[in-house]
Amino acid sequence: MAIHGLWIINKAGGLVYQRNFAEGLAQLTSNEYLVLAGTLHGIHAITSRLSPTGSSSGAEVIEGESFKLTINLTLTGTKFVLLTSLTETTAEVILQKVYEIYADAVMKNPFHTPEMPIRSEGFDSKITTLIGSG
Amino acid sequence: MAYSQPHPRLSLLSNSSQSSVDQFSPTSSSTRFSVPPTPSIHSTLGSVKPPSGPRPNIYDRNLNKTRTSEVSASAFTFLFSEIVQYTQKRVGGINDLERRLNTLGYRIGSRVLELMAWRAESSSKAPKREIRLVPALMVIHTQVWKAVYGKAADAIEKSVENADEYMIIDNDPPIERNISVPRDMGGLSCSSFTAGVVEAVLDGLGFPARVTAHGTPTTQHPCRTTILIKLEKSVLEREEMLK
């Protein structure tokens, strides 16, 4: 039961928000995070076309041996990605709440430029209350 | 980065910045109280419900009809966010931005006061006009705040250092709730809009003052805002005489 990290990927595949919540995670440079997010964006686009039975919204959960990656695709194309431990069961609920916070603290903030990296104290502090500081 | 040649459709605000002298005297600029063209909201409503007979005019509607109706806070926040972005594109600095938000609030405040006076007159048998300063501030703190934001402000304070300064404090102003001002714009307070409302109401009641907004965050209330009222000398002199 642990939440490792949160990513927000805009509709063009750019990483606009990345934050770690646990100690002792593998340290990556911001450039590596950008590449990973772009790759995930591509994989997600492929999975959405792989469905044998009609249209699909794409991958929702990707599981590894030691971690789980939950993806929430919004109607506007923004992707919320939560990296958790395998046993974490609340990932979907948390992502939905993150989306809510995003709608409030980011989209209603006049100083935010859409599709650009999120730099908002309000968003940061609300995420901290939801998930913890790490 | 003000535009050198304002587009003719730009708001009247862009004109007022060029002649900033007359912006607080409603009599000298008639554009400030311009009447918008036919409200377009009816055309969208019309498509949902087929209109029967002539379209109702918003100006013919009873003013009490909307007394208890409420506006979606989300929709208002998006609108206010757009207002700030629109204004920000057309100003040179933080002071200019605050002044324009103040002017926008002023337009709201003068209407709010008139509407409140009209409603008080029709609903109570002994409608009252505040002529003393402290009761007037109380009216702003409770009634005006309730009319505009749906809740009362949190405190009124009198400055210890300056006799002509009063403060109205809101711990969590609804218009600021979702706004995070970037660090490089440190001093900006979007509540300048509220300050404009207060200034208009005070002006209308006969207490001319300069009203500004300042963010005064505490750990418990990160959005806490102080509306600072600096009264004109004449007001204090009159208060002395009335004692």
UniProtKB/TrEMBL annotation, chain A:
Question: Where is the protein situated, by its record's location annotation?
Answer: Endoplasmic reticulum; Golgi apparatus, cis-Golgi network; Golgi apparatus
Q: Main site of residence?
A: endoplasmic reticulum
Pfam families xrefs: Sybindin
- Key words of the record: Endoplasmic reticulum, ER-Golgi transport, Golgi apparatus, Transport
Annotated SMART domains:
Sybindin (SM01399)
Q: How does it assemble?
A: Part of the multisubunit transport protein particle (TRAPP) complex.
Protein source organism: Agaricus bisporus var. burnettii (strain JB137-S8 / ATCC MYA-4627 / FGSC 10392)
According to its UniProt entry, one GO biological process term is:
endoplasmic reticulum to Golgi vesicle-mediated transport
- UniProt-listed InterPro entries: Longin-like_dom_sf, TRAPPC
**Record has Transport as a keyword:** yes
Record's family? Belongs to the TRAPP small subunits family. TRAPPC4 subfamily.
What are its GO cellular component terms?
A: endoplasmic reticulum; Golgi apparatus; TRAPP complex
Instruction: Please state what the protein is called.
Output: Trafficking protein particle complex subunit
From TrEMBL, chain B:
Q: Where is this region: Disordered?
A: 1-57
The text of the family note is:
Belongs to the TRAPP small subunits family. BET3 subfamily.
- Lineage, opening ranks: Eukaryota, Fungi, Dikarya, Basidiomycota, Agaricomycotina
**Where are the compositionally biased (Low complexity) regions?**
10-30
Question: What Gene3D superfamilies is this protein classified in?
Answer: Trafficking protein particle complex subunit 3
Give the species.
Agaricus bisporus var. burnettii (strain JB137-S8 / ATCC MYA-4627 / FGSC 10392) (White button mushroom)
Keywords carried by this UniProt record: Endoplasmic reticulum, ER-Golgi transport, Golgi apparatus, Transport
Note one Pfam family from the annotation.
Answer: TRAPP
Q: Name one GO cellular component term.
A: TRAPPI protein complex
SUPFAM superfamilies for the chain: Ligand-binding domain in the NO signalling and Golgi transport
User: Where is this chain's protein located in or outside the cell?
Assistant: Endoplasmic reticulum; Golgi apparatus, cis-Golgi network
Instruction: Tell me the subunit arrangement.
Output: Part of the multisubunit TRAPP (transport protein particle) complex.
The record ties this protein, via InterPro entries, to: NO_sig/Golgi_transp_ligand-bd, TRAPP-I_su5, TRAPP_component
Per the record, the GO terms for biological process are: endoplasmic reticulum to Golgi vesicle-mediated transport
The answer to whether UniProt assigns keyword Calcium to this entry is no
Q: What is its main location?
A: endoplasmic reticulum
Q: What's the protein here called? A: Trafficking protein particle complex subunit
